[in-house]
């Protein structure tokens, strides 16, 4: 069973963290969820990692500030920059030593980039591998929701305006009855050709746990971030990038630009899949993640045998 840890940050926000495996494991894998979701997003990866690697890999997930079981925060801290700082603090608290493989879905991938940008020394000392799932380094540059550019601009305008309103609603959470009514829209936006009913229920449950401040507050930062230059400096790390060809939020050009910035990255495009790739195509995500972990573990063993 995973251990439950509360990490209290410098601004007194508490983060709900779950970890399994020994603190002195050979490698720690940290899995970061997307916007309005929580650590449960990775349930199909957690089981695979425990079965495949046992105590060799410590696995950490946590709910970002304003999400899941973590605490709410001041609106001014609803930024990717703050999430990058939070990641550094979580590593210090629950994985203070040894190599780390960082795995990010959507906003979680952008958090990794922000951590690398804001804490380059810390990142260089800890990060040994990267996995980017349905994410982008170019804000909303490629986001057209699978629609015509003109309609996409109208949707983005409405979304941005609505986000500003929600951001001022504080720690309130979306009414579950409303989310049940919106489930078909959530399914269309986040999933591709196939959707397991348990997955759409889990996603709806996660959105219901996110504060309105986090749902609205992070939108501006997510749309504005550009970190391709930061990625270009990380080309020496084992890495993988995955995307679904039906992803309406971070379509294939997002993953392609990440792979171009990291030339050694293994790029996987999953036909018929949408934005929730770790649920829709767990076998492909697990294969990419275990592939990076295998390379990092081999490198760690080689380093330990050097005189």
UniProtKB/TrEMBL annotation:
Transmembrane regions: none
Gene3D superfamilies registered for this protein in UniProt: alpha/beta hydrolase
Tree of life domain: Bacteria
GO terms of molecular function: catalytic activity
Domain AB hydrolase-1: 30-288
A single GO cellular-component term on record: membrane
Signal peptide location: none
A Pfam family annotated for this UniProt entry: Abhydrolase_6
PANTHER family: HYDROLASE, PUTATIVE (AFU_ORTHOLOGUE AFUA_2G14860)-RELATED, MONOACYLGLYCEROL LIPASE
Protein name: Pimeloyl-ACP methyl ester carboxylesterase
Protein source organism: Micromonospora carbonacea
